[in-house]
Amino acid sequence: MNRPPMLMHIKIQNKERKFGLWLPLFLLIPLALVILIILSPLILIALLILWPSGYGRWALLCLKAAIVSFWAMRGLKVDVQGRNEVVYISIV
Amino acid sequence: MSENKKKILEMLAKNKISADEAYRLLSAVDGDEGGNSTAGHDNTGHENTGSRGPQVKTKSKYLRVTVTPNPEGVPDGKGNLFQDGNVGRVNVRVPMSLIRAGLKLTSLIPPEALDKANNALREKGINFDVRNIKPEDLEELIEALGDMEIDVEGGRGEKVKVFVE
What are the DSSP E strand ranges found in chain B? Predict the structure, then answer.
């Protein structure tokens, strides 16, 4: 099984401003898990309400797809330099 | 004829893949069927999915797209933030696992959107049903991407490379 992403580095720079951010995903993931656990009764109720109409299964599949996509993002690197802007995104 | 080869030929007959892709898939299947599968790792970060002497198949981990601008075409610096030869540089690395996850998202596309996509393709003269794309077919195509390398030199001297590592 792949390891989840640990760190995210974003750097965006243009003529007017400069923006840089280091996101510690290894801290945000446990936090997201705690929030998920706290909200799980509400999520369960929402799924039970939506299930007969077919949207419940779709919602579960979307959630699974979002988690799988996030888990697979480790190693993503985007480095683009234009004439007056730089965009750098790296997920480690 | 093995089941995998039969499947590849069926996909080619139904125009799901081109002849070039079918050739690559058949070569990959020949390689898989011709040797032992001993898992292991090498120093370059690839996983060795087989040891067959000269036909060692390594599992691709990243799709890379790079654009290297022409170093002679350095902008004059007027109004540019970066006055070096790196303007127009692109370096993108996408993990293959992310591509697989993204392709599996196609199962979440509503049927109405698929119909619109099919109609748009038909208008362009492409008689292809996107519903026929299945995850197992895409997996074989992704495996075949390991042999892909695109190298283009533009009119202004910039170099575009698309490859898998």
Answer: 40-41, 47-48, 58-59, 62-68, 90-95, 149-153, 159-164
**Which ipTM value was assigned to this complex?**
0.78
Same domain, B142 and B74: yes
Question: B79-96, pLDDT tens digit by residue?
Answer: 444 555 567 788 999 998
Burial class (CB in 10 A: 0-12, 13-18, 19+), B70: middle
Q: Which range of residues forms the domain containing residue A52?
A: 7-91
Residues B34 and B96 in one domain: no
| Residue from the list B88, B92, B105 with its beta carbon closest to the beta carbon of A65 | B105
Nearest to A15 among B81, B97, B98 (CB): B81
pTM: 0.62
B20-75 residue pLDDT tens: 788 778 877 776 665 544 444 444 444 444 444 444 456 778 999 998 887 665 55
Q: Say if the Cβ atoms of A72 and B90 lie within 8 Å.
A: no
Contact B64, B93 (CB under 8 A): yes
Number of independent structural domains in chain A: 1
d(CA B125, CA B123): 5
